[in-house]
Protein backbone atom coordinates (compact mmCIF):
# COMPACT_ATOMS: atom_id res chain seq x y z
CA UNK A 1 0.00 0.00 0.00
CA UNK A 2 2.64 2.56 1.06
CA UNK A 3 5.91 2.00 -0.78
CA UNK A 4 7.50 5.37 0.03
CA UNK A 5 7.10 6.68 3.57
CA UNK A 6 8.33 10.18 4.38
CA UNK A 7 8.86 10.92 8.07
CA UNK A 8 9.70 14.33 9.50
CA UNK A 9 12.29 14.25 12.27
CA UNK A 10 13.50 17.06 14.52
CA UNK A 11 14.89 15.24 17.55
CA UNK A 12 11.86 15.87 19.77
CA UNK A 13 10.13 13.08 21.68
CA UNK A 14 7.12 13.47 19.41
CA UNK A 15 9.26 13.07 16.31
CA UNK A 16 10.73 9.90 17.83
CA UNK A 17 7.19 8.55 18.15
CA UNK A 18 6.54 9.45 14.50
CA UNK A 19 9.73 7.64 13.46
CA UNK A 20 8.68 4.55 15.41
CA UNK A 21 5.32 4.58 13.61
CA UNK A 22 7.03 4.99 10.24
CA UNK A 23 9.18 1.95 11.08
CA UNK A 24 6.06 -0.09 11.90
CA UNK A 25 4.45 0.92 8.60
CA UNK A 26 7.62 0.19 6.64
CA UNK A 27 7.90 -3.29 8.11
CA UNK A 28 4.23 -4.03 7.43
CA UNK A 29 4.35 -2.85 3.80
CA UNK A 30 8.04 -3.51 3.01
CA UNK A 31 8.46 0.18 2.27
CA UNK A 32 11.32 2.59 1.92
CA UNK A 33 11.56 5.21 4.65
CA UNK A 34 12.78 8.70 3.82
CA UNK A 35 13.64 10.63 6.98
CA UNK A 36 13.67 14.39 6.51
CA UNK A 37 15.05 17.14 8.70
CA UNK A 38 13.99 20.65 7.71
CA UNK A 39 16.33 23.59 8.29
CA UNK A 40 14.37 26.81 8.60
CA UNK A 41 16.28 29.87 7.42
CA UNK A 42 16.98 32.15 10.36
CA UNK A 43 15.12 35.43 10.11
CA UNK A 44 16.99 38.70 9.96
CA UNK A 45 16.37 40.40 13.30
CA UNK A 46 17.21 44.07 13.25
CA UNK A 47 16.39 45.00 16.84
CA UNK A 48 18.49 42.44 18.74
CA UNK A 49 21.94 43.78 18.05
CA UNK A 50 24.49 42.08 15.86
CA UNK A 51 24.29 38.40 15.16
CA UNK A 52 25.30 36.35 12.16
CA UNK A 53 22.39 34.38 10.67
CA UNK A 54 24.83 32.24 8.66
CA UNK A 55 26.33 30.91 11.91
CA UNK A 56 22.85 30.10 13.23
CA UNK A 57 21.98 28.33 9.97
CA UNK A 58 25.27 26.41 10.14
CA UNK A 59 24.42 25.17 13.64
CA UNK A 60 20.97 24.03 12.41
CA UNK A 61 22.60 22.14 9.54
CA UNK A 62 25.11 20.49 11.90
CA UNK A 63 22.35 19.44 14.32
CA UNK A 64 20.24 18.09 11.46
CA UNK A 65 23.13 16.18 9.94
CA UNK A 66 23.95 14.55 13.27
CA UNK A 67 20.32 13.65 13.90
CA UNK A 68 19.91 12.15 10.43
CA UNK A 69 23.02 10.02 10.98
CA UNK A 70 21.45 8.66 14.19
CA UNK A 71 18.12 8.08 12.43
CA UNK A 72 19.88 6.29 9.56
CA UNK A 73 21.68 4.05 12.02
CA UNK A 74 18.38 3.20 13.76
CA UNK A 75 16.66 2.44 10.44
CA UNK A 76 19.57 0.28 9.36
CA UNK A 77 19.37 -1.71 12.61
CA UNK A 78 15.69 -2.32 11.84
CA UNK A 79 16.75 -3.82 8.49
CA UNK A 80 14.86 -1.23 6.47
CA UNK A 81 15.63 0.37 3.15
CA UNK A 82 15.95 4.07 3.89
CA UNK A 83 17.16 7.48 2.82
CA UNK A 84 17.90 10.54 4.90
CA UNK A 85 17.82 14.07 3.63
CA UNK A 86 18.35 17.53 5.00
CA UNK A 87 16.08 20.10 3.36
CA UNK A 88 16.35 23.85 3.71
CA UNK A 89 13.55 26.31 3.29
CA UNK A 90 14.05 27.97 -0.08
CA UNK A 91 12.72 31.46 0.32
CA UNK A 92 11.78 33.99 2.95
CA UNK A 93 8.10 33.06 2.62
CA UNK A 94 8.57 29.29 2.83
CA UNK A 95 8.17 27.79 6.28
CA UNK A 96 8.92 24.30 7.61
CA UNK A 97 5.49 22.99 6.58
CA UNK A 98 5.94 24.34 3.05
CA UNK A 99 9.41 22.82 2.73
CA UNK A 100 8.08 19.48 3.97
CA UNK A 101 5.25 19.61 1.42
CA UNK A 102 7.74 20.38 -1.35
CA UNK A 103 9.90 17.43 -0.29
CA UNK A 104 6.89 15.09 -0.11
CA UNK A 105 5.86 16.04 -3.66
CA UNK A 106 9.39 15.85 -5.10
CA UNK A 107 10.15 12.49 -3.49
CA UNK A 108 6.85 10.91 -4.54
CA UNK A 109 5.91 9.98 -0.98
CA UNK A 110 2.84 7.77 -0.60
CA UNK A 111 2.30 8.89 3.01
CA UNK A 112 3.87 11.45 5.32
CA UNK A 113 4.28 10.63 9.01
CA UNK A 114 4.62 13.65 11.28
CA UNK A 115 4.39 14.17 15.00
CA UNK A 116 2.13 16.69 16.66
CA UNK A 117 2.93 18.07 20.08
CA UNK A 118 -0.62 17.94 21.42
CA UNK A 119 -0.76 21.59 22.43
CA UNK A 120 -4.15 23.04 23.26
CA UNK A 121 -5.68 26.36 24.07
CA UNK A 122 -3.45 29.42 24.33
CA UNK A 123 -0.23 27.48 23.76
CA UNK A 124 -1.61 26.21 20.43
CA UNK A 125 -2.86 29.66 19.43
CA UNK A 126 0.47 31.31 20.26
CA UNK A 127 2.84 28.69 18.89
CA UNK A 128 0.81 27.30 16.01
CA UNK A 129 1.54 23.88 14.66
CA UNK A 130 3.80 22.75 11.84
CA UNK A 131 1.69 19.60 11.60
CA UNK A 132 -1.52 21.59 11.29
CA UNK A 133 -0.04 23.87 8.63
CA UNK A 134 1.26 20.83 6.79
CA UNK A 135 -2.03 18.95 6.68
CA UNK A 136 -3.80 22.04 5.38
CA UNK A 137 -1.62 21.99 2.25
CA UNK A 138 -0.79 18.28 1.97
CA UNK A 139 -1.38 16.54 -1.33
CA UNK A 140 -0.54 13.09 0.06
CA UNK A 141 -2.06 11.10 2.92
CA UNK A 142 -0.77 12.18 6.32
CA UNK A 143 -0.43 10.12 9.47
CA UNK A 144 -0.31 12.33 12.56
CA UNK A 145 1.33 10.82 15.60
CA UNK A 146 0.28 12.62 18.71
CA UNK A 147 2.65 13.22 21.55
CA UNK A 148 1.52 13.82 25.11
CA UNK A 149 -0.82 16.80 25.61
CA UNK A 150 0.88 19.92 26.93
CA UNK A 151 -1.38 22.61 28.33
Automatic annotation (TrEMBL):
Source lineage: Bacteria, Pseudomonadati, Pseudomonadota, Betaproteobacteria, Burkholderiales
Q: Write the protein's name.
A: Stress response protein NhaX
Instruction: Extract the PANTHER family matched here.
Output: STRESS RESPONSE PROTEIN NHAX, UNIVERSAL STRESS PROTEIN UP12
Tell me which domain of life the UniProt entry assigns to the organism this sequence originates from: Bacteria
- Where in the numbering of this chain does the UspA domain appear? 1-146
The UniProt similarity line reads:
Belongs to the universal stress protein A family.
Amino acid sequence: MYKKILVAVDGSETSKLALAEAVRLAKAFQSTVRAVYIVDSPAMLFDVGYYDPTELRKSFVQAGTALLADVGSALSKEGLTYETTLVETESVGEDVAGALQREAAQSGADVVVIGTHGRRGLAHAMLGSVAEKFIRQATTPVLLVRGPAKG
